[in-house]
Every structure is written in C-alpha cells, then in structure tokens.
Design a protein that fits this description.
alpha+beta; 4-stranded antiparallel sheet; two-stranded antiparallel sheet; 3 helices; about 30% helix; globular
Length: about 230
C-alpha cells in the first residue's frame, strides 16, 4: 500500500507570501505610528494642563504668578521659554517646592519661589529631556512626549483675562491670529486669547536635545501641543 507524499511550499510560493506580508506591514506601520503620535499628543496636553492648573493654584495661594524669568512684569503678559535651563529650574522649584532631583529647596529658593514649600504639582523623570546626576545644576530641560524641549509658558500677568502681544517665538496655528481664521491669537494686540495661563510647543520650531546635540524635529516627529486655562 503506497503512502501519499506531502507536497511542501515551493521557493516561489514562500517568497510570494513574504512579499505579501511585507506589503501589509508597510501599509499598517503608518497607521500604528499615527495612533502612537496621537497618544503622545494627548498625554502631553494632559501634562501641560496639569502644569497650567498648578500655576493657577500658585497664583491663588500667593496672589501673583511664579517669578521664573527676567521678563516678568505686571504691566504686560509674560512669555517664558523653558529651553532656558535657569528658567526651567525656577519653574520646577516654584511649582513642586523641590529641586529637579526631588531634594528640598534651600532657604533662598524658598524665599523667592515658594516660601510655604507647597507642592502644586510633581515632575517625573519622564518629563525631562534627560535625567542624570547633574539635573539640579546642568541642562535641566522639560520636554513634551514627542521630545520637543522648546516649551513656552505664558502668564496673564497684566490680569486682563486674556493673553496677547506675545512675540519672539513660533506660535501654533490654533492660537495664531493670522492662521486660525478668527483673527484672534496670543500675537494680536487686541482681543488675544481668553486665558490666564497658556503652555505650548510648536511643530514649527520643535527640536530635541540629548545634552550634546540639538536635533530639529520635523514632520511626524513634531506637533503643535497646547494647553489653555
């Protein structure tokens, strides 16, 4: 009695299957990357919103916005660039009542930035561009979840209930008077955007920094991320 022999796949058939899998994967990867990017944007917006809430709580407790930059003035809205490490350290100390490493503030910092040592929000290691032993004194930089360290913080420090006349940075389209279709934006001299605090990153100037090299971010690597309160 003869046993039937089983026919295996030919090389051509195997290559055809592999090619089909490759085509399907090439079609699927962009969709997966888009979902991942949306998730990172949403997480960044949530984080920025927490920081906005912390700033507003700070203002409620102390009666003024944290003095984190040299341009602070009660006569105009104030823009603070967190790609400046000194400004970033003040931002972290003021809102967390701790150094970036988590250690307690010295008396001089408490006096200037958070005299009651009240924690308005916490910062995790994932919030930093990189975290090492020099985090308290070196390149202290916060990033959005896409890796952009050019975070902008704007306070309604003139207490008009809107933020306006901001210049010197790339402004996301949604809050740019010339691009959002409403004529209102943080760059406009009148009207502005109704808000007390705005924190944002802009795709148009996005960059990452690893402690040595600044790398511009473009296309799928960057996005406009905005939190308004």
């Amino acid at each position: 009695m003869k046993s039937e022999s089983r026919r295996g796949f030919t090389l051509i058939e195997l290559l055809t299957v592999i090619a089909i899998i490759g085509i399907m994967a090439a079609m699927l990867f962009p969709a997966i990357n888009a979902v991942r990017k949306k998730s990172k944007i949403a997480t960044s917006q949530s984080t920025f919103s927490q920081w906005c809430t912390a700033v507003n709580r700070y203002k409620s407790v102390y009666g003024f916005y944290p003095n984190i930059g040299t341009t602070y003035s009660s006569a105009a809205d104030s823009l603070h660039k967190l790609d400046d490490t000194a400004t970033t350290r003040k931002f972290i100390k003021a809102l967390s009542a701790k150094n970036p490493s988590g250690s307690a503030l010295i008396s001089a910092d408490r006096t200037v930035l958070n005299r009651n040592a009240e924690e308005f929000c916490a910062f995790s290691k994932e919030d930093y561009a990189f975290y090492d032993s020099s985090i308290d004194t070196g390149n202290t930089l916060l990033v959005d979840k896409l890796g952009n360290y050019k975070i902008r913080v704007v306070f309604d420090s003139d207490s008009t209930g809107s933020i306006k006349k901001i210049s010197g940075v790339t402004i996301p389209d949604d809050i740019n008077s010339a691009k959002n279709g409403t004529g209102l934006g943080i760059d406009s001299a009148t009207g502005g955007i109704p808000a007390r605090v705005i924190i944002f990153t802009a795709a148009g100037e996005a960059a990452s920094f690893d402690g040595t090299t600044i790398t511009p971010m473009t296309g799928d690597d960057a996005a406009d991320i905005i939190a308004i309160q």
